[in-house]
Design brief:
Strand content: 25-35%
Helix content: 25-40%
Number of strands: 5
CATH architecture: Alpha-Beta Complex
CATH superfamily: 4'-phosphopantetheinyl transferase domain
Shape: globular
Number of domains: 1
Oligomer: single chain
Strand order of the largest sheet: 1-5-4
CATH class: Alpha Beta
Structural class: alpha+beta
Radius of gyration: 14 Å
Low-confidence stretches: none
Number of helices: 5
Order of helices and strands: EHHHHEEHEE
Distance between the termini: 6 Å
Largest sheet: 3 strands, antiparallel
Length: about 120
């Protein structure tokens, strides 16, 4: 396996108590992600961890948000009892193919005050 890129992002949970409103979430998350947001005490960690994963993915691909990429180009999916996965939009899949990406590894972790995500893209 040859590493093409690695991105990491850490987010403070306090920040998300202000950001996590319906309008902001609709701009950042796909419909499937939005529908999977839990209520209750896990809500902020869930939102912040998915956001951190999207930021880490963008860094791993060597991109920045703008005309060439958006938050919704990266979808964080997690089957119950399994590790989270990073799914790519059709546009981002083309970019991944151009870069020779065949493996994407996503890891998410959290503490009481922060979340961290790491994405490795490799050939």
């Amino acid at each position: 396996m040859s590493i093409i890129g690695h991105g990491i992002d850490i987010e403070d949970l306090k920040r998300f108590s202000f950001l996590a409103n319906e309008d902001w979430m609709a701009r950042v998350f796909t419909v499937a992600e939005f529908d999977s947001i839990p209520s209750g005490e896990r809500r902020l960690k869930h939102i912040a961890s998915r956001f951190a994963a999207k930021e880490a993915a963008m860094k791993a691909f060597g991109l920045s948000f703008g005309p060439g990429a958006s938050f919704k180009d990266f979808e964080i999916y997690r089957e119950s009892g399994c590790a989270p996965e990073l799914r790519l939009s059709a546009r981002m899949r083309k970019t991944a193919d151009q870069l020779g990406v065949s493996v994407i590894v996503l890891s998410i972790s959290h503490s009481e005050t922060s979340v961290v995500a790491s994405v490795i893209v490799a050939a």
